[in-house]
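Sequence in, structure out. Go.
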Amino acid sequence: MVDTVSAAQARRIALAAQGFARPRPASTGIRQLNTTIERLGLLQIDSVNVFERSHYLPLFARLGAYDRAALDRLAFARKGRYIEYWAHEAAIIPIESWPLFRWRMEDYRRRYGPEADGWVRANAPMLDWLKAELAEKGPLAASQIEHESNKRSGPWWGWSDVKSGLEYLFRFGDVVTAGRRRFERTYALPATVLPQRLLEAEVSRDDAVRQLMSFSARAHGIGTLGDLADYFRIKRAPAERAVHDLVDSGELLPVSVAGWNRPAWLHRDARIPRRIETTALLSPFDPIVWERARAERMFGFRYRIEIYTPAHKRIYGYYTLPLLIDDRLVGRVDLKSDRQAGVLRVQSAWTETDAPPETAVRLAALLRETALWQGLDGIEVVDRGDLAAALTAELP
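Output:
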């Protein structure tokens, strides 16, 4: 019975639960991709493509180089093992998880649906028409539905009414994704994509939240109530009820973690490795770091993405990736894939105070692998950041 866990053990437990305790495979095929996605439970999607889209990066961090087209075929097949929904944020999830979010679909419908006095109610005839279009023509992207009189407009995202309508229907569960084309979502009626058993599956709100919290606990290995709730963005009260149920069933064990100053829970199947040996660059939306308070508590790593910060106010760079060496976050690297020049640009490279002396050597090796994975011929390091000079020396 474990009741006290050191801070170092907590880090290793969390990293092992996320797949970092295993050696990278000699080669990565469909089986390894599926196993890793199933372990994570979701891949968060983000449109920023300055280096690489976010959903590709967690797999690279854990498995090394793999065929991104293979992931596209898995994740964005019209009918396959995965589908998209608002799980953490917009994310790729196993289709088996889709019924577990019906309560969220119902919440969205109550908040924004026809009974609410808002956009959906004012545009109800158009939403009915959209569903009829999908019923008649099958899966379609918004750009295939838009009329000449309904071109994209707006002060920020420029979404048309058609796109907005499809996104509301997607949140309500009235339509689902049927893959992507050039990263644009394709929409379909649920019956077109999902097997009948999932359409008919009935899961109560409490049971769904309990299952999601159970999965979150396995994916975390160890965490606070806030950590476990954040994985699928579950509110505190239902998350707390689920944790109590999981403790009663023996799945979660209450523990104390040195330095956390708050209750924590350990999953009964969590491993406590003696060491973690890895070198990885993490997406800003990797589960290891997406909950910034957890990253700071667990790794002493204060991380903020600076995409939306004016250039002259950025400290580290536009799209900095946390650098994981073994069981510590020891630096951050701002990367850009310059495909026209065939170069991976290191626009800045920084270390944390406890970075090991071999940081530049290990990062250089990883960057060589990264450039090859991206199909780029060279690496260029900009002289910005306290790691830049040492990194340049390792990349002649």
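Check: Residues 205-220 form the longest helix (16 residues). Residues 154-158 have pLDDT under 50 and may be disordered.
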